[in-house]
Design a protein that fits this description.
Layout (H helix, E strand, L loop, with lengths): L13 E4 L6 E2 L1 H15 L5 H5 L6 H5 L8 H19 L1 E2 L3 H10 L3 E5 L4 H11 L5 E3 L8 H6 L4 E4 L2 H9 L3 E5 L6 H6 L4 E3 L5 H14 L1
Parallel strand pairs: 1-4, 1-6, 4-5, 6-7, 7-8
Antiparallel strand pairs: 2-3
Helix pairs in contact: 1-4, 4-6, 5-10
Amino acid sequence: MLEPDSPLTDSPLTVGFDLDLTLADTRQGIGDVYRALSARTGVPIDVDEVLTRLGVPLEHELAHWFPAERVPEMAARYRALYGDIAVPASALMPGAIEAVEAVRSAGGRAIVVTAKNQRHADATVERLGLPLDAVVGGLFGAGKAAALREHGARIYVGDHIADLDAARAAAALGVAVATGPFEAAELRAHGADVVLPDLRAFPEWLAGHRAASRRS
């Protein structure tokens, strides 16, 4: 990943954000969708366990509860339920609006790159009123790198170790927030360039980062 004083940080500011548990608190809605899916299929699903793994692709999680041959069908059923159940239950993570506005106030662009499918990513962003410049869905881990590079993101902010893989693959600065399934020490051990307790700390960090870049 880039060092904070890398010359590449002088390029126009674009910051990428993950969505679930970074900008959006989707735990209640996702839990409710799994409860509904369990009720409709008769298959027991430990929702508390599911919520400890948020951030992985849907099909990966469903494979814990359904045989492989049923996963595509269950993914389709989950997505059919998501819009009506989970999107209205989505809430902002603490500091989310302020973090996005800090980027835009600095003359930069703020984008989302998420594993959530495009339709529900767009709907969640609209529901929360996040003033984003672009939303890219359906990408996970290092697979996010192409979108980050396409949009020129030099910083990627996320809560999951897979988000750090994305930043590394995109040669971006990996900023981790300890608001998801991984504690700060785990994020740091996985190679985060910066670890913040949550997005409320992001505007101050960004201001300091930009000031240090201008001095270098």
